[in-house]
Design a protein that fits this description.
heterodimer; A: mainly alpha; rod-shaped; B: mainly alpha; Rna Polymerase Sigma Factor, Chain: A; Arc Repressor Mutant, subunit A; 2 domains; about 75% helix; globular
Chain lengths: ~240, ~170
């Protein structure tokens, strides 16, 4: 293949990139080896390309990124940094620090409470501390359980009592007492009474929860409520 | 972010040869990217290629805008400032050598025509392949290859005239 200086110059980059056909590459090399100018040119350009490709990038100014961010996203408002003796105070209100502090404090309280309840120096033995803490925990749990059970009993009683008025909505007959001289039912003409019948034969609302039935009950109620005419003791037939 | 910033700044700096202009242009590039990000489509090419296209367009605008200034103010005036900043006397040997090479390269690039300069920068300093350069420059691949080849030869001759020997 016929090769000359012009071709060498035109195809130099292809030769350096390895893009020439084998016969072109051979002709290029043969010509460059015999031509002083082309040898120099090939050496200069290949050296230059090699140096440029190995060149390190220029460092951008450090303020450039900040300038770009400010130009695109706007200036950032700096959060004021508190300084001084209590500058660290806001940090401890972060949840992780606050939880840690509370946990440590609770641990100390439990341990010292258990140690103090033992009352002797030997109680500082870790085994005793653990036992004391265990005992305290169980006692606390037992008290809590008892309290809850008591509450439950009280509420159950209250709920049962509060459901009573519905079941007692109808008048409850009680042995009525009559003043002396009044005719007994079924004896002689019945005197008309101004008071409604129900009023004299029903338990007042306030005493509806009183035990019912039985003459002994009436006696007991009379003792308990001596001024209430409803529970006046019946006269002896004698 | 840092990778893209460095890429854009290097392209601007290698093209303009002025760190201050490169910084301003980089900021302008990202501002434009930020405003036109919604119009970016993956079919236009990878994001870095699109970023390079936007940068190149801004550089061309900047080149045209400052053509009159360059008539009276040589681009070489900016170089002492850069060399002072990266004074080799303050650096270790390797860094100083790299810095000196970078400065020499910059001087040589400044003497190329804009078309050849941008082609060489994109290929040899930014590491783009021919297809990406074709996308960025919006010219046929044959033209891209021709510009790169001529740019390399021209730069080698310029550096040779400046007394810079190949490694």
């Amino acid at each position: 293949m016929d090769w000359n200086c012009t071709l060498t110059e035109e195809r130099l980059s292809d030769f350096l990139d390895g893009a020439l056909l084998p016969e072109e590459s051979a002709a290029f090399s043969a010509h460059a080896a015999g031509c002083v100018n082309c040898t120099k040119l090939v050496a200069q350009v290949s050296g230059l390309v090699s140096r440029m490709q190995q060149a390190t990038p220029v460092e951008e100014p450090p303020q450039l990124a900040g300038r770009i961010l400010e130009a695109t996203l706007g200036s950032r408002k700096q959060k004021p940094v508190s300084t001084g003796w209590f500058g660290w105070a806001p940090v401890i209100w972060q949840p992780r620090f606050a939880m840690g502090i509370v946990t440590v404090a609770a641990s100390f309280v439990i341990v010292f409470h258990a140690a103090a309840s033992s009352g002797s120096k030997t109680s500082l033995n870790p085994l005793n501390l653990v036992r004391g803490a265990n005992r305290q925990v169980h006692l606390t749990y037992a008290r809590g359980a008892k309290f809850v059970n008591d509450l439950r009993v009280v509420y159950e009683i209250e709920s049962r009592l509060s459901s009573q008025p519905e079941t007692m909505s109808e008048p409850i007959p009680v042995p009525t007492t009559r003043p002396s001289g009044e005719p007994q039912p079924g004896q002689g003409p019945q005197q008309p009474s101004n008071e409604p019948r129900e009023k004299s034969q029903t338990i007042p609302h306030s005493s509806r929860r009183a035990p019912r039935n039985g003459p002994e009950l009436a006696v007991m109620l009379t003792k308990v409520f001596p001024d209430d005419p409803t529970f006046r003791a019946p006269r002896s037939p004698l | 972010m840092r990778r893209h910033t460095r890429r854009v700044f290097n392209l601007c700096y290698r093209f303009t040869g002025n760190p201050t202009s490169a910084e301003d242009l980089s900021q302008e590039v990202f501002l434009r990217i930020f405003r036109t990000l919604a119009s970016y489509q993956a079919s236009q090419g990878a994001f870095p290629t699109w970023l390079t296209s936007v940068t190149r367009n801004l550089l061309v605008d900047h080149y045209r805008r400052t053509r009159r200034d360059r008539m009276t103010d040589s681009i070489d005036d900016a170089m002492p400032q850069l060399e002072e900043k990266h004074s080799p006397a303050r650096m270790p040997d390797k860094l100083a050598q790299a810095s000196e090479l970078s400065a020499q390269l910059q001087r040589g690039l400044a003497r190329l025509s804009p078309e050849l300069r941008e082609a060489v920068i994109l290929r040899d300093l930014q590491g783009l392949d021919y297809g990406e350069i074709r996308t960025v420059l919006q010219v046929p691949e044959g033209t891209v290859k021709s510009r790169i080849n001529r740019g390399r030869i021209e730069l080698a001759r310029v550096l040779d005239e400046m007394g810079v020997r190949p490694a």
